[in-house]
């Protein structure tokens, strides 16, 4: 199983290898940061000012979405939505792309509250919202 993943990685173009490696490293450090600091402090510090212009804007968003999704599948720990959002926000900020983390809740079938975080850059969902969540805050 792991050998197949390594072979698949080696067959990727070098730009995607770099992007996937960046996503794995950023996910790791985002998870570590969540263990060490309160969530509110992390989200306040992660505010980014950027632009959403340029010809490669949508290509960058789609590539980062792909990298975060695949990196979270490869990582030792299953990365939750908030870790992916923080990592994605950092990756977008490095490229000068402004993004917002949204946090929301919904009730499941057993009437339990389920929390979720998703990341948007403009109207593009980098980390998907998925189901119908009630938005509580955005950072």
Structure, briefly:
The protein is of the alpha+beta class.
Task: Write the topology of this structure.
Blueprint: H1 2-11, H2 14-36, H3 39-45, H4 57-74, H5 81-94, E1 100-107, E2 113-121, E3 124-127, E4 134-138
Antiparallel strand pairs: 1-2, 1-4, 2-3
Task: Write up what this structure looks like.
This protein has 139 residues and is an alpha+beta fold. 52% of the residues lie in helices and 19% in strands. It contains 5 helices and 4 strands; from the N terminus they run αααααββββ. The protein has a 4-stranded antiparallel beta sheet with strand order 3-2-1-4. The model has no long low-confidence stretch (mean pLDDT 87).
Defining traits:
alpha+beta, four-stranded antiparallel beta sheet, 5 helices, 139 residues
Give the neighbour order of strands across the main sheet: 3-2-1-4
Unreliably modeled segments: none
How many structural domains can be distinguished in the coordinates? 1
Number of β-strand runs:
4
Strand content: 15-25%
In terms of quaternary structure, the protein is single chain
Structural class: alpha+beta
Mean pLDDT: 87
Supply Rg.
Answer: 15 Å
The rough form would be described as: globular
Order of helices and strands: HHHHHEEEE
The biggest sheet amounts to: 4 strands, antiparallel
Distance N to C terminus: 38 Å
Q: What level of helicity do the residues show?
A: 40-55%
């Amino acid at each position: 199983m792991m050998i197949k993943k390594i072979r698949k990685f080696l067959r990727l173009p070098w730009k995607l290898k770099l992007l996937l490696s960046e996503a794995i490293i950023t996910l790791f450090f985002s998870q570590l940061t969540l263990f060490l600091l309160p969530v509110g402090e992390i989200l306040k510090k992660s505010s980014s000012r950027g632009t959403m212009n340029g010809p490669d804007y949508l290509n960058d968003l789609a590539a980062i979405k792909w990298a975060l999704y695949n990196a979270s599948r490869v990582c030792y720990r299953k990365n939750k939505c908030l870790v992916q959002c923080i990592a994605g926000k950092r990756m977008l900020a490095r490229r000068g792309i402004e993004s917002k983390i949204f946090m929301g809740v919904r009730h499941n079938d057993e009437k339990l509250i389920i929390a979720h975080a998703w990341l948007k850059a403009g109207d593009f969902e980098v980390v998907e919202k998925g189901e119908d969540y009630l938005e509580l805050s955005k950072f």
